[in-house]
Specification:
Bound molecules: zinc ion
Distance between the termini: 33 Å
Radius of gyration: 15 Å
Helix content: 10-25%
Number of helices: 2
CATH architecture: 2-Layer Sandwich
Shape: globular
CATH superfamily: Folate-binding superfamily
Order of helices and strands: EEEHEEEH
Length: about 100
């Protein structure tokens, strides 16, 4: 069973989340040739081991998260908000409550 520690809601079962895809992809500019978009959207490595993924907490806060996970053991090494601005809000909230 995969349990993801949402930075906003806490530790939750993975059934509350939706897998978003590979978080390590650098998408091309919007006006890039179709071949570049084809490669970015459809060509994937099937990584055995640690990979960066995006997950959305669809049954919780609905936030998008970056998750560093081992695809073999399912061990999760890190979880953080996918949008950097929300990370700053989280840190500010923790500093204000300490
Ligand atoms: Zn959440």
């Amino acid at each position: 069973m995969i349990r993801i520690d949402c930075p906003f809601c806490g530790l939750r079962d993975h059934s509350e989340f939706s897998y978003g895809g590979d978080a390590s992809i650098n998408y091309p500019p919007l006006d890039a040739p179709a071949e570049q978009w084809h490669d970015a959207v459809f060509l994937r490595e099937n990584i055995r081991g640690r990979q960066l993924e995006t997950w959305q907490h669809t049954s919780g806060c609905r936030m998008w998260l970056n998750v560093e996970r081992d695809t073999v053991s399912h061990e999760i090494f890190a979880v953080w908000p996918a949008h950097r601005g929300y990370g700053r809000v989280l840190h500010a909230e923790k500093e204000n409550t300490e």
